[in-house]
Amino acid sequence: MVDADPQTVWDLLTDAPAYPHWNPAVVSLGGRIAVGEKIAMVSVVSPKQTFTLTVDRMDEPREMVWSGGLPLGLYRGVRTFTLAPLDGGRTDFTMAEVFGGPLAPLMNRVVPDMTDSFEQFGDAVVAAVRGAR
């Protein structure tokens, strides 16, 4: 739960250049967060690797979907951000990532574990909107 309305959280999540300033899980996020655009993310989990992602869907201020992976759908990760309004101007924020494709069993063994990074990301959203108030 985030102590801010969905639009405030949405504005934070869609400001690519600001990510490294509020999110300790992200080294950099380049590009424009808009449907069909490519963004380049570098994570603290793997700081020498750039993940090229496509912004697949944006339903402001409810849902955003990014995806990336290998050509031909051999391996694909889909990250979904969901924001639901709660009483008192708060937001239920969730983020999930699903990996799939024929090479998923092999790739899942070599892709870094993102569990801690995801927790940091969620905590950073909460802290960033708290600090903006």
Write up this protein.
- The protein is α+β, with helices and mostly antiparallel strands and 133 residues long.
- The protein has a single domain, classed as Alpha-D-Glucose-1,6-Bisphosphate, Chain A, domain 4.
- It contains four helices and six strands; from the N terminus they run H-H-E-E-E-E-E-E-H-H.
- The chain has helices spanning 6-13, 19-22, 104-110, 115-132; strands at residues 26-31, 38-43, 50-59, 63-69, 76-86, 90-100.
- The protein has a six-stranded antiparallel sheet.
- The protein is globular.
- The model has no long low-confidence stretch (mean pLDDT 92).
Write the layout of secondary structure elements.
Layout: H1 6-13, H2 19-22, E1 26-31, E2 38-43, E3 50-59, E4 63-69, E5 76-86, E6 90-100, H3 104-110, H4 115-132
What are the key terms here?
133 residues; 6-stranded antiparallel beta sheet; 6 strands; 28% helix; globular; alpha+beta; 4 helices; Alpha-D-Glucose-1,6-Bisphosphate, Chain A, domain 4
How do you describe this structure in short?
With 133 residues, this protein is α+β, with helices and mostly antiparallel strands.
State the distance separating the first and last CA atoms.
16 Å
Strands in their spatial order, largest beta sheet: 1-2-3-4-5-6
What is the annotated CATH architecture?
2-Layer Sandwich
Global morphology = globular
- The amount of helix comes to 25-40%
CATH superfamily: START domain
Largest sheet: 6 strands, antiparallel
- Would you state the CATH class? Alpha Beta
| Total number of beta strands | 6
Protein name: SRPBCC domain-containing protein
InterPro entries: Polyketide_cyclase/dehydratase (IPR019587), START-like_dom_sf (IPR023393)
